[in-house]
Amino acid sequence: MNVGGFWGDLIGGIGGAGAWLIAALLLGIAELVVPGVFLVFVALAAAIVGVTVLALPDLPLAAQIGAFAAWSAAAVLIGRRWYRDYPVAGDAARLNDPTARLVGAVVTVERAIEHGGGRVTLGDGAWPARGPALHAGARARVVAVDAGVLVVEPLDG
How far apart are alpha carbons 40 and 44 in whole angstroms? Predict the structure, then answer.
């Protein structure tokens, strides 16, 4: 198949393998720009096809596209399985949940926690809090966040 114009000259100049490897590189960069859309697996498929075309330079374009589609599907399925079996743990799992990142923070009781409710200072803001009885000025650790209310426990030591 002859692709005309600028793109045809470009691909003809770098070869089919080079075009696939450049596509793999661009897809990898796109994954860095827009993470989480499985482009890394599609990039891997393009790289595999690029290496295959290096080994078999006369491979027809239809076979290259078919191989790319098959490797893309396989790589995405393997990637989905991998992420299901080995979920992201730690702070990265809470990246899009700002209140969950507050868990573990040390706070200062601003208004005494009495009858289960009070107010604490965290950074430059004050938050409603719930927990055991604590006097104003006491330090506590956030153990959970429930509907915008920090659940605290006394800081040991």
Answer: 6
Report d(CA 27, CA 10) in Å as an integer: 18
Q: Is the pLDDT of residue 139 over 60?
A: yes
- Dump pLDDT digits (tens) for 14-42: 778 888 999 999 998 988 888 766 788 99
CA angle, corner 26, sides to 20 and 11, nearest 5? 40
By DSSP bridging, strand 117-122 and strand 125-130 are: antiparallel
CB 145 within 8 A of CB 100: yes
